[in-house]
Structures are given as structure tokens and as C-alpha cells.
Design brief:
147 residues; single chain; alpha+beta
Length: 147
């Protein structure tokens, strides 16, 4: 993802995030049907259909929650870090509170962001606004290899 959020419009940021999602570098995100609706260094909102999750029931699985949380936390960290840095997930956890059926929102916001680390909380809710999953991810922010 190469977008400068200090000089780009919100539409340009979203276009870059959507292009990243469809790129060959992120095939799991495309396969899971993750759609980023809102993206900034302060807030992310996305959707992901339950039908895309590998579950024998119609419930959102814990592994799908973690895929979604890592995607949102990584995008948010990359937007915070800027185009001249890379982000690498170093820690993630998820607490699943209840099963989810096919609707709802996923929101992420930064807990702490700095020069070398960014931590995000991702909250997954159902269509009634009930919390389904709470996840936290920490990403390392670094210079690209060879820089």
C-alpha cells in the first residue's frame, strides 16, 4: 500500500486500501470477502460475510475473526506509519463472546500508536450491535528491508 494520508483525500485512501485488498499480496482478504468501508489512521470500518468463513455452521468462527482483525490492524498501522515504512504483526489475540449471523460491522481504532509500534482494538458486532468478538493486534513499524 503506498498512500500518503497527509496529502491524500479520504477517497484516495479508500481506493488504495481496496486496491491492496484485491492485490496478489493479500489473496486471503479477497477470498474472505473483506470490504473496507472507511479507512484512516484513526478508524477503520469493514464488512466480511459469514458465508466466506470456513465453518460448518452459519456462525462466524474464531479464525475468521482473527483474519479480519489482523487485516484491519495491519491496514490501520500501515496508514499510521506512512508509505516509507513496513508493518509486521507481532501479537494478536481474540476473545469470542457469542456466535454471529450474517450481518453487522467490524470497527477498529488505535489503542496506542508511535514510531515503532501500533496497537489496535478490533470490535466485531452483530446486526443488533451486540459485541461478538474483541481482538487486539500489535504491529511493529520498521524501515523496509535494505533501506
Amino acid at each position: 500500500m503506498t498512500v500518503d494520508i497527509t496529502t491524500s483525500t479520504p477517497d484516495e485512501v479508500l481506493a488504495a486500501v481496496r486496491g491492496w485488498r484485491r492485490s496478489t499480496r493479500a489473496p486471503l482478504n479477497a477470498r474472505m470477502g473483506i470490504e473496507v468501508i472507511e479507512a484512516s489512521a484513526e478508524r477503520l470500518v469493514a464488512t466480511m460475510p459469514v458465508e466466506a468463513t470456513p465453518s460448518p455452521t452459519a456462525c462466524f468462527t474464531v479464525s475468521a475473526s482473527v483474519v479480519l482483525a489482523e487485516t484491519l490492524g495491519s491496514i490501520g498501522s500501515a496508514l499510521h506509519a506512512g508509505p516509507d515504512k513496513v508493518v509486521v504483526g507481532v501479537d494478536i489475540n481474540a476473545t469470542h463472546h457469542r456466535p454471529r449471523t450474517p450481518a453487522g460491522h467490524r470497527r477498529g481504532h488505535p489503542l496506542s500508536v508511535g514510531r515503532t509500534r501500533a496497537s489496535w482494538e478490533i470490535v466485531i458486532t452483530d446486526e443488533e450491535g451486540k459485541r461478538v468478538c474483541t481482538s487486539r493486534i500489535t504491529c511493529l513499524i520498521a524501515a523496509p528491508p535494505g533501506a
